[in-house]
Amino acid sequence: MFFLKMAFKNLTRHKRRTIITALIIAFAILIYVITEGLMIGMTEMSFDNIMIALRKV
Question: Which tens digit of pLDDT belongs to each residue from 20-40?
Answer without folding.
Answer: 999 999 999 999 999 999 999
